[in-house]
Structure formats: C-alpha cells, structure tokens
Amino acid sequence: MRVVIVSASAQRKPVPEYVTALAKGMESMGHRVDVLDAWTEDGFRLPGYEYIVVIAEAVSLFGGKMPEPLAKTLAAGSGLVGKKGAAFLKKTFPFTGRAMANVMRAMEKEGIIINWSDIVLSASHAESLGKRIGA
C-alpha cells in the first residue's frame, strides 16, 4: 500500500526521530512509505497515496492548537475525499485530548476517513504502531 506520513511538528525543524521510526515500522510490513514535512512541502502529491497518516505536535499547552502548515498542506491536496487515514499525536503536554480532536477535525474537513488514532509516546512506540498498519 502507498502510504504518506504528513509530519507537522510544533516548530520548523528536521523530521523528528519518532516520525522516521513510524515510517520504518510501516516499511517493515511491506508498505511503500513517503514522509512529507508540512513545514517545507506542499500537499499536492497527497491524492496519489492510498493511506494518509498525519502525525503532529500541539503548539499550545491548553488549547491544543496545531501548527498552521498542517491545515495548509491538507487543503492543498484536493481530491482527498474518501481516502483512509490515521491521526497520531506526539504526547508533549498533559492535555492531549483537545489536540487530538483538532488533528482529526483538520483531516475530516478535507474528507479523509480516519480509521485509527493514537498517542505516540516515543520513537520505539511509534515503530510498534507502524507495524500495526494494515495488519
């Protein structure tokens, strides 16, 4: 299966270790995985994938605000209606429920059907989650 991981970290920085670990876990299951950084790339290639994974970090402590590039990247990929996807959130603050709801809301706004969501605790946890995709 062709899978894209949209990484939306809280700040503009290189792709975090937990994102590459998630991709490694998915690749070990035989999937073709590409990582797209929401800060540096656009979302025009998103319709070409069968499964869209968004992994994000919350920007604010209480509001669960998501990085601005996430919404722009998802909106740029027109034709996402009906695509299956997963929403992951890196646990950074104690209040993650609202942040997870915001990630899912951004995906559903573009028509992505979310069939899996989870909180990522570490890189090793992300790799084990990646091995469960399509299993």
In one word, what is the shape?
globular
CATH homologous group name: Flavodoxin domain
CATH topology name: Rossmann fold
Uncertain regions spanning at least 5 consecutive residues = none
Portion of residues in beta strands equals: 25-35%
What's the story with the biggest beta sheet? 5 strands, parallel
| Alpha-beta content class | alpha/beta
CATH architecture: 3-Layer(aba) Sandwich
Query: Rg to the nearest angstrom?
Result: 13 Å
What's the overall average pLDDT, rounded? 91
Strand order of the largest sheet: 2-1-3-4-5
Total domains: 1
**What is the count of β-strands?**
5
Number of helices: 4
Distance N terminus to C terminus? 12 Å
H-E string: EHEEHEHEH
Query: Roughly how much helix do the residues carry, as a percent range?
Result: 25-40%
Give an overview in words.
The protein is α/β, with parallel strands linked by helices and 135 residues long. It has a single domain (2-125), classed as Flavodoxin domain (Rossmann fold), CATH 3.40.50. It is built from four helices and five strands, in the order βαββαβαβα. The protein has helices at 17-28, 68-76, 97-109, 123-130; strands spanning 2-8, 32-37, 51-56, 84-90, 113-120. A five-stranded parallel β-sheet has the order 2-1-3-4-5, sandwiched between helices. The termini are close together. The model has no long low-confidence stretch (mean pLDDT 91).
Overview features:
135 residues, alpha/beta, Rossmann fold, five-stranded parallel β-sheet
